Every structure is written in structure tokens, then in C-alpha cells.
Amino acid sequence: MSVNAGAGIIAIFPLIAMLCLTGLGITCMILFIRVAVRAIKALDIYLAEKSQRNKLY
Apex CA 14: angle with CA 12 and CA 18, to 5°? Predict the structure, then answer.
């Protein structure tokens, strides 16, 4: 085993770390979009209820 073979194995770790961080970033973006969609729906429901309440008075 030469010295260069050890350097090749060590060079894989940053690649694995970069792929893991990219996966985490994509997962966080998907979760953020899902939360934002729920928040918009909740806001729509709240505004609809509030406008119906104002029509009654």
C-alpha cells in the first residue's frame, strides 16, 4: 500500500460529508415548504372565520 492510497481514502470523507449536508439541506427545505403551506391554509381559515363573524354583527 502506497502513501497515495491512504490519501484517496481520506479524500472520500469530505465527499460523504458534503453529500450528507446536501441531503439535510434538501430535507429542511421540503419541511419548511410544508410548514409554510400549512401556515397559509391556517391563515386562510382564520381570515374566513373572522370575515364571517364581522358579517353577523
Answer: 115
Q: Give the cell for residue 9.
A: 481514502
- The reply to whether the predicted model has a pTM over 0.85 is no
Length of the chain: 57
CA distances from 57 to 37, 43, 49, 53 (A): 31, 22, 13, 7
The C-alpha atoms of residue 31 and residue 28 are separated, in whole angstroms, by 5
Span 5-28, pLDDT tens digits: 667 777 888 899 999 999 999 999
Give how far Cα 5 sits from Cα of 1, 2, 8, 9, 31, Å.
Answer: 7, 6, 5, 7, 40
